[in-house]
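pasting for the record
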Amino acid sequence: MTERVEQAMELFERISKALRAAGMAELPTSPSEELSLYGMDSLMMVLSVAALEKEFSLRISGHEFSEEYFRDLDALAGWMRRLGAS
């Protein structure tokens, strides 16, 4: 496995850990599956932001937040990368 693939897998694992900590009981098996099918709603988004901040030691301000980032794991991973998560 390449280093890039390993980093991507680790990022997905950490995002999944944060989502479970926020209260999502089940997570998608594919990064492109819609999170709404697994219970992602507005309350879960807020709880997830707090869990993602903790997991990645980030501060996420309101102007950085968008509902579109919670479409699927791919979108969340892209957002976390833009915020500086590694």
